[in-house]
Amino acid sequence: MWKYGFASVMGTAHVRSSSPLQDASRVEVVIDSSGNEILIAVAADGAGSAAHSAIGASTACDRFIHDLKTYLAGGGALVQLRDHFIQDWIRKFQFLINGLAADAVAKPQDFACTLLAAVVGHDEAVYFQLGDGAIVEALPDEQDQYRCVCWPQQGEYANTTNFLTDADAGQKIFCEMKSSVVNEVALFTDGLQGLVLDYRAQSAHSPFFAPLFAWLRPRGSGYSSELSESLIAYLNSEKVNARTDDDKTLILASRTKKRTADC
Fold first, then answer.
1. What's the pLDDT at 260?
2. Residue 83: predicted pLDDT
3. Residue 250: how many CB atoms within 10 A of its CB?
4. What is 138-163 written as a DSSP string?
5. Which candidate, 53, 49, 31, places its Cα nearest to that of 40?
6. C-alpha span between 145 and 164 (Å, rounded)
7. Are 27 and 40 in contact (CB under 8 A)?
């Protein structure tokens, strides 16, 4: 059974400027039409310069969870997510944002946000990324070692990235399909990139993730409020805020049983 926790917290720069939290995150475990357990984890980071990006980010997370649950309940297969689901979903999201923009007398770009999503079944997984932030998964044969599924995307210009509201979002989205068991996964927005990625090796910094997952493994199944509250405290700590002033999101999910070495 999956156990998970997640948190999105405001960066100190947003606190100083009285800006809203522009990160959003959601996690659910659902049962598909065949009775299989599916983990759905999604995070979005609103563009700092976009007036309504907080709405864009929360809308992206809510709609992704809702539409994917509808897809799975209708008998949709994970193997078809990359080819049949995501492109249609991006078009639907942009149509929805166009309506919100018209109501707010704004531009769709005012709702710009990134997307990170992991959909993990029994022995297969699908990952999506548009923009910065990244997804990390446990290596199956190496204890407490983690690999970066995707690297933060660079936009056309320096210090820019890609967003769901971009006209060519469907062409730029990263998709990876795995036909193997994935037992631990983490998603994080760009506010944490400097802490959890090894830029020289272009890899995940496993010593960051190992103790967090070791703490999560013996917890009960389902959502862990204890972990989520601990993540909020950690992401708001002076240690973290000394290295980043941006909004920060971290999602952790595991279905690995407690190992003797973790005691």
1. 45
2. 82
3. 27
4. E-TTSTT-EEEEEPPPP-SSTT----
5. 31
6. 31
7. yes
- How far, in Å, CA of 82 to CA of 125, rounded? 11
Phi, psi of 118 (to 5 degrees): -130, 130
DSSP annotation of 16: H
Strands (E) located in the chain: 3-9, 23-31, 37-45, 115-120, 125-130, 134-138, 146-150, 174-178, 184-188, 197-198, 203-204, 222-223, 248-254
State the Cα–Cα distance between residues 229 and 55, nearest whole angstrom.
23
| Residue whose structure tokens are 């009775």 | 35
The whole-number pLDDT of residue 259 equals 58
> Structure tokens of 151?
């690297």
Residues of the chain with pLDDT under 70: 158, 258-263
Q: How many Cα atoms within 13 Å fall on the side-chain side of residue 117?
A: 30
